[in-house]
Specification:
Layout (H helix, E strand, L loop, with lengths): L1 E6 L8 H10 L4 E4 L32 H9 L6 E8 L5 H14 L4 E6 L4 H6 L7 H17 L3 E4 L4 E5 L13 E4 L4 H10 L2 E3 L11 H10 L8 E7 L3 H10 L3 E6 L4 H18 L1
Parallel strand pairs: 1-2, 1-10, 2-3, 3-4, 4-7, 7-8, 8-9, 9-10
Antiparallel strand pairs: 5-6
Length: 284
């Protein structure tokens, strides 16, 4: 089992470089930074898109840019993997993001993880001129375009949402064929179809549904599609530091657990990292 940390890096909390250094010193395998470009004041969409959810916490609209923050950490660390957790791909320009993630991979010496997702905040998505009802198809197409940019010396792409004539774009990622692409989302047919088609893993949020019931099904779909089922890595996002939960996820075939660290000042968040390391060490 691999153990990592999920975090909303904000201007009021433990800063990204300090967080990354503390996580690496504690022996964690990876860190994954959440992102939101902004949060509209209207707050029409409930937290997570769930009716009856409590008010959205302030850290959602105070996050640093995830790629910028991870690149800063790359310069001060040497072993810990650096993940977007998750990049809201429908809202991002794929040509720029391809360069940003490739740059992060080069700067870090091949330590980038590319976590992506569809997004849930309807008004945030609309602020970018995006039709929320098309966001899943858009994420698929943008990911395919990014993979083309990474793979080809003269990349070109023609789709409904992304089109570009043959072009040059460097750097290319250190990791081959590309940094691992992990899709965050519920275990829907669309999500699983996308993972099998163009991604390397699934990152479900703990507590929304019984994750253990879906791991085998995802890998079976991969095998039916001619992919190595063991190559589909499952990362559980925001898992509680509970020994029974950890063991249940391990038994189900989960590969990585991400404990959540609260967006709090240095002394509190730093102690939480130490406490979580002790949980991980005890679980083995």
């Amino acid at each position: 089992m691999l153990y990592g940390l999920a975090y909303f890096p904000t201007d009021k909390a433990m800063q990204p470089i300090d967080f990354g250094e503390a996580a690496e010193s504690a022996g964690f395998e990876s860190i994954w930074f959440a992102e939101h470009s902004h949060i509209p004041v209207s707050r029409i969409t409930p937290w997570g898109g769930r009716e009856g959810a409590p008010p959205l916490p302030e850290h959602y609209w105070r996050t640093h840019d995830s790629v910028v923050a991870l690149a800063a950490i790359a310069a001060r660390t040497s072993t810990i993997r650096l993940g977007t957790g998750i990049a809201l791909l429908a809202q991002r320009d794929p040509i720029w993001l391809a360069k940003e993630i490739a740059s992060l991979d080069v700067i870090s010496g091949g330590r980038a993880n590319f976590g992506i997702g569809y997004g849930w905040n309807v008004e945030e998505i609309e602020s970018h001129g995006i039709d929320p009802s098309r966001r899943r198809a858009m994420v698929r197409e943008k990911t395919l375009a990014i993979k083309e940019i990474w793979a080809s010396e003269e990349a070109s792409f023609s789709g409904e949402f992304v089109s570009f004539d043959p072009m040059w774009s460097w750097p290319k990622p250190v990791q081959q064929p590309h940094p691992p692409i992990v899709i965050g989302g519920a275990p829907t047919p669309v999500t699983f179809r996308h993972i099998v088609e163009y991604a390397d893993g699934w990152m479900p949020l703990y507590g929304r549904f019984p994750i253990e019931d879906h791991v085998a099904g995802l890998r079976h779909l991969a095998e039916e599609a001619g992919r190595d089922p063991d190559a589909i890595q499952v990362t559980v996002y925001m898992a509680p530091p509970d020994p029974k939960v950890i063991e249940d996820l391990r038994t189900a075939g989960v590969d990585r657990i991400l404990f959540g660290v609260k967006s709090l000042p240095h002394d509190i968040a730093g102690q939480e990292i130490i406490d979580l390391q002790q949980v991980a060490a005890a679980a083995g």
